[in-house]
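User: Hey, my collaborator sent me this sequence without any context and asked if I could get a structure. I don't really work with proteins. Can you help?
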Amino acid sequence: MNHHDFFECLNAQFQDALPFVAYRKPNEDRVNAVFQNDDTLYETKDLSESGFVFAPFDDASKMVLMPLEQAEVDYCDAYEGEEVVTETSQLISSSEQKMAYMDTIEKALSTIEQTDLKKVVLSRPDYVSNENFQVFEVFKRLLSTYKTAFVYCWYHPKIGLWLGATPETLLKIEGQRMSTMALAGTQVYKGTTDVSWGNKEEEEQQFVTDYIVSNLEAEVEQVSTSERRTVRAGGLLHLQTQISARLGKDHTGLLQIVRALHPTPAVCGLPKAEAKAFILHHETYNREFYSGFMGELHFKKRQTRNTNRRNVENNVYATVKTVSNLYVNLRCMQVLANKVALYVGGGITKDSNPEAEWEETVNKTSTMKKVLF
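Assistant: No problem. I've predicted the 3D structure and written it out in structure-token form, which is a compact way to encode the shape of the chain:
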């Protein structure tokens, strides 16, 4: 489908108040879409179905599914638009927001001092008016600006409208192979990825890697990790380690693996249970789907072994692999009745400086605000 028709279809589905998701995977050109045929709110309890899943931060809440059997799937090839040029944002957070956030950071620091809590990720919403907000224009700007991210626009009339560009993969499974990543540390991108990192960031990133590996070892086989590297996500840099493994013969399904990983230390903290309890008790709002996860669940991918076109018989040997691609819902926004909520957070450890942590959240929201208008 060409771009014009593709965006027309998205708009028609939106005007008809029918659920859809449009998304592009990291470093790919194709923009995919799932158009649900009715406005039923489907959920998945065990991640065994085929469809697009949209799951909240708190696993006590519903995981929403757009099932492939109740939907049409389409795509358009590369969307090339104007990249948004980075300028300093004109939108400034209020002093009340700052006081409230700093106060929660202080509580976290004293809890870290007195308990086993090592790291907790604290977040906050930042609101801007949606007076001139045009959903598909914003989606196009996200596509143009964040080439290396998972970029999406998700809508369900019974839940709402979310958009984002996340740098973090939760889980990728293709056949029996799985991979994930440990992501931590943030600094502003200034034209190069050849930068140095402080002890705090390197230590935090190592924490995250060790934690994920130890959690996965109970569920999968042959866990291995890559070298740590610096990656760019829009106007920010992060430290990343790739982690891969093999699903065991007797593995019990995706839910157990997702439970081992989600919520990740990048959105929750360490140890997970203590960090999550702190967040649910002390954050002054409900995260809903921010820092949850989303993506393709059990999509079928046909792979031909022989790429020589003349040898048609060999196409009989094409294999169909089941793939799942799940991403953590970071750098996202929720479109509300008269405002847009941008969600942002940072990891608090014993070495955190509240003022510097506040500045980090301001850097993160200002990169997102640029694509809004």
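In plain terms: Residues 95-114 form the longest helix (20 residues). You can pass these tokens on to your collaborator as they are.
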